[in-house]
Amino acid sequence: MKKNILIVLSGVLFFACDRVEDPVQKKDGAFDEDLCAEQTFDPNTNTKRNVLIEDFTGHTCTGCPGAAYIVEQMEQTYGEQVIGIAMHAGFFAEPYPAGTIKFETDFRSEYGSALHNDFGPINSYPKGMINRSDTVLNNGSRLFGKDEFENAFLRFKDQAPAANLQIKHTYDDNDRTLCVSVETEALQQLSGEFNVVIAIIEDSIVDWQKNGTAGSGSPNYSPGDVQNYVHNHVLRNNVNGMYGERIISGNLSASEKIVSNYTSTLDANWNDEHLNIVAYLMNWSTKEVIQVVKVHM
């Protein structure tokens, strides 16, 4: 059976702008023209700035289900403007030895652990980043406690977006080939260096999780070791590397567009029925996420 697949052509410009021939980091999913077709995009009518919440978590962290619960409540309240990624990393994400039965699954990912180290040290959990901004708290920190997530989100909620993104994809479940295309459109002039990042996240993973008491853990589960906890937004991989690919170096004028294309083979252990593709545009200098979108595979 065939499913929709995202296809991205890296560095193809619809209009004149400063393109980058050599990205900051070699992408993992170089575009395969034999497997993937070019995509065309309809006009993007989005008028909202979406917000990326990156939640550093772990299955033995008793407070982490409380953070996941807050993100899910925000998704219900604000809809597609809230996009969560759960990055299992650090001490609480370490799996127990085989044969322990509980907490044996390793939810860590290469890029989630690397981002944890880059934006750390993290001395208490749960902690999260909101658009990777370091200006909201006025203390230079990008890390927020779970009870600060919503107020930080509200700082961005009504801002006009500086750019829009669209994703198209195709997926062949016979060989698990994913083709992804992302259109980046400047809504105002973008000056500097900007990267586009493509992440794969998985929902509905049922496994063990420690849950705290009221006010700490999730109210959806009893306190203690929960066998049938549902893990959502779990970062599986970044298709084009930890910080993605540099697509703008210099200026991109309002209404100009860039299409980026990638090909990737999905891990056989991931349930493709529960996978989502997240694309975000990041200012390389400030590390702030300018725009983010998500589509279900």
The neighbouring-strand order within the major sheet is 1-6-7-13-2
- The overall average pLDDT, rounded, is 90
Query: What is the C-level CATH assignment?
Result: Mainly Beta
* Alpha carbon gyration radius: 19 Å
User: Total helix count?
Assistant: 3
Q: Write the H/E string, N to C.
A: EEEHEHEHEEEEEEEEEE
CATH superfamily: Immunoglobulins
Distance between the termini: 13 Å
Low-confidence stretches: 1-17, 19-28
Largest sheet: 5 strands, antiparallel
Structural class: mainly beta
The number of distinct structural domains comes to: 1
Percentage of residues assigned to helices? 10-25%
How would you sum up the global shape?
Answer: globular
CATH fold category name: Immunoglobulin-like
According to DSSP, the number of beta strands is 15
| Name given to the CATH architecture | Sandwich
SSE arrangement:
Blueprint: E1 2-6, E2 12-13, E3 51-57, H1 64-78, E4 82-88, H2 110-119, E5 127-130, H3 149-157, E6 163-172, E7 177-186, E8 190-202, E9 205-211, E10 224-231, E11 234-238, E12 245-252, E13 257-265, E14 275-283, E15 289-296
Parallel strand pairs: 3-4
Antiparallel strand pairs: 1-6, 2-13, 3-5, 6-7, 7-13, 8-11, 8-12, 8-14, 9-10, 14-15
